Amino acid sequence: MDKISPLWQPLPRALDLSQRTSVFLRKNQSIGTSKIAIPLWSRQESSELWMKYEKLLYSCLRTGDDKSAFLCLKRLSDRFGATNEKVMGLRGLYQEAVAEGEAALLGVLRGYDDILASDPVNTPVAKRRIALLRILSRYADAMDALVELLKSSPTDIEAWVELSDLYLSQGLYPQAIFCLEEVLLVAPNAWNIHARLGEVLFVAAYAGGESVDIKGTAEAMRRFCRSVELCDGYLRGYYGLKLTSDRLMAMFDAGAKKTPTITDEEFPIPSDETTRLLNEQATKKLAQAVREGIEAGYDHEELVAAKALLDRHAPTT
Question: At 136, is the pLDDT very low, low, confident or very high (cuts 50, 70, 90)?
């Protein structure tokens, strides 16, 4: 999904969390070590505490602090048990991170295979195995494993998104689009997925080289419209809306039909007037975001991309 996982947090944020890990571990060193069962929702111990341990584990692995990452993993293992499925997945992630060379990674993969041989429904381990197959460039095996996972868990949004990304990386655009449409059946108001689907549709529309698909571009623009309708401040959605409307306006200027035309599908291609109004709105929103900057919570890389897109079409003096 779109930066909701701790693994997607900005590196400065991950570094900040990693640097505070030792203090956090000292402060909470006695929690979770008792042999007497304590309710997870007790005053001293809470689910938020263990989510914090997990987030710190991710941050430490991202910043190379393997020692602190191991301590976080040990606390989780002591609290929930070494055979807890989530803990097993996190242990696998740690082993992947500290593995040196392909031979070591293949050893981790064999470990996953052994676990799944005795427990085929261990989803965290199955997902780590898929991620490792992708790291090892075994894309076909990763896709096959995801298809099998989705047979038993057809509403797993994370798995559908990962499968879509794999299909996209192999140029299998119809399959990538289908996977994202399946996500929207489960989460129809996921604005980030609407935007992601718009991106894939746009890439697919231009995959044929000089043969541009106007219908695909229009459908991509419609998806970006839905994205910003659901989340007015979603910069990625406005970026896509401006990009696709720019392309459609160029097609209209080059002689493409400017009046709404019902396609073979359900929705018409938008008119030239509608496209230009949407383009103006997207331009205003992007310019506003660039002015407000990272202080307003926008991602730095996305702001740079937005400014470059605006500069590309800025009037010359």
Answer: very high
Question: What is the sign, positive or negative, of the torsion defined by CA atoms of 270, 275, 278, 279?
Answer: positive
Count other C-beta atoms under 10 Å from residue 168's C-beta.
20
* pLDDT for residue 133 is more than 80: yes
Per-residue pLDDT reduced to its tens digit, 227-239: 999 999 999 999 9
Any residues with CB less than 8 A from the CB of 314 and at least 6 apart, and which? none
Q: Is 234 helix (H, G, I), strand (E, B) or coil?
A: coil
| Predicted pLDDT of residue 300 | 87
Token pair belonging to 47:
């689910």
CA 153 to each of CA 102, 131, 149, 159: distance values in angstroms, whole numbers, following the listed order: 30, 17, 6, 9
E-assigned strand segments in the chain: 261-262, 268-269
For 275, counting Cβ atoms within 10 Å of its Cβ (0-12 exposed, 13-18 middle, 19+ buried), the class is buried
Do 244 and 202 touch, CB atoms closer than 8 A? yes
Query: CA-to-CA distance for 207 and 189, rounded, in angstroms?
Result: 28
Whether residue 210 is predicted with pLDDT greater than 70 in this model: the reply is: no
